[in-house]
Amino acid sequence: LLLLQAAWFRVAEGDCTPRQLHLSLSLPADEALWVSWLTPDNCTSEVEVSAGDPGVVVGTFTAAEPAHRYTHTNAYYGAYTSDFVHQVEVTGLGPGQSYSYTAGGRLRGAEGALREASAVHSFTVPRAAGLREEMRVAVIGDLGQTGFSRETMEDVNRTLEDGQGAPEFLMLVGDLSYADGNDTRWDTWGNMMEPWLSHLPLVAFPGNHEIDFDSATAETFINYRERFRMPESRPAITKPGTIIESSTYDFNFTYEYGSSYFSFDVGQAHFLCLNAYVNADEDSRQYRWVEEDLAAVDRSATPWILAFVHGPFYNSNTEHQNEVATLSMKAALEPLLFRHGVAGVWAGHVHAYERTHPIYQDARNSSGPVYVTIGDAGNREGLYDTWLNDPAADWYAYRNGSHYGRGDLFLVNSTYLRWEWWPHGHGAAEDVAWVKNPYTAAASTDSSSSSSSSSSTGATAIVALIISSIVVATIVYLFIQRQRRQSDLAGNTSLLHKYARRSAQSTSPNQSSHSRLFASEDDLGIWDVDTGKTTELSHHSGISRPLSPAAPGHSRV
User: What is the DSSP string of 1-54?
Assistant: First the structure.
């Protein structure tokens, strides 16, 4: 009887213990975030937030919608049905403040069921938008779930206490789990990431490995859009898509707004995240949204605009060349990003590290963005260390495909940011670059030109006023003298002409500098069926080689 009673209680309580717990930013990013997790059973969704030490409960938050399950069908692996996905938005937080929290819930439909909760975790809210202080963001791409992936995340975790200021959040530029149709890998990836993402907020957006084309419904991005919530400005719009040519990444997919592409403000930067695999032509929703978003940025509060996308616009690696999705997005959006003074564009996709000089339309241009490829976080497909040797491609500044690694982005002030690339096993950054904000550089140039022009115009006006006064006085004098001495008229008229010529020369228009916005110019693995490789959490067979000053494929410009 006791055994039966114990079994009944276990069934009644169910399993509401959170798994795959992670944080992600919401809007506004300095006041709100998402807490997401999965449970085997259908449970309520509650997040209890505390502040101070010892913690005082400041609020209990519940989900706006009940936990849900979803189904995805892959042509090779078959149908997968997820556990129950919970997503709770925590709002009203203090910018830059630290909190502790637990996530959990009770079995639905079971009276008296106890709340099952996670362990106590803590997080720090990103700093206030517009705050002019140095800040840091961790950036990685193409992570996967190998031993190298774990090493990357351990390196990121160490940045929380390395004395340089903890990252505000982790930016993952697409290609998260490398599930590739075997959707249980989304669960193993979520479990792997929980120790880090339960306290460091995630910002991510789709890469090609998030497309997850559904062979039954032709829906796309299903696992990503069901599991992750980002700073969404509008509800998502989706519909079945078509693959025109997979080998060239030529797709017709619809995943608009939601967590597909979005933006947010933290500190002195406006962050713009794009979806390379959704139409971005000038008549597309994504293009119009980007256009409106950039036009609305308050540069007095957020002087930096930084963009992030999966497919790199500039790539000198032999892999991932001439892809339709990336080329079409570059053609449409590059002029828009340049026009609005975007300082940098970070991407993944290519499993290597590369940084360009400031560039615009395939030529070095000091007013253009710096482009960074950082697709080397550890996925199972290995590193790409073969490079094009086109002598005309003088726009790349550094490239290295022999190491897995991560990046650190420091926004130092409104004029300069510092970017660092850290390969695995190195005690110092291998590539360090200082990037000047093209917007503040242009504003400074315009201010100087305007000041110089104003000073010159003011001086000219004073000289003209003095000469005009002299001319008037001379005319009066000559008129009086005409009445007295008609014979002296010619000499006095010569004096009048002399002053008139001087006046004409002094009041010629000043050729001031034309106002400028920018500084001067001188200055697919979608169906990656993996039947033979089962050691997801072991090191890849590739070897992370030590750097050599003369190693082929490296540029130390």
Answer: -HHHHHHHHHHHH-----EEEEEEE-SSTTT-EEEEEEESS-B--EEEEEETTT
Answer whether 206's CB lies under 8 Å from 241's CB. no
Measure the N-to-C terminal CA separation of the chain; round to a whole number of Å: 77
Of residues 80, 94, 99, 104, the one with CA closest to residue 19: 104
Q: Give the predicted TM-score (pTM) of the model.
A: 0.81
* CB-based contact 188:157 (threshold 8 Å): no
* Cross-strand pairs, 50: 57, 100
Q: Which residue, 209, 358, 265, 305, is CA-closest to 30?
A: 265
Residue (of 60, 59, 32, 26) closest to 44 by Cα position: 60
Q: What is the mean pLDDT of each run of 10 residues along the chain (557 residues)?
A: 42 82 98 98 97 88 97 97 98 97 93 87 97 97 98 97 95 98 98 98 98 97 98 97 96 98 98 98 98 98 98 97 98 98 98 98 96 97 92 85 98 98 95 96 56 43 49 44 40 32 33 26 30 35 33 32
Q: With contact defined as beta carbons under 8 Å apart, do 548 and 400 qualify?
A: no
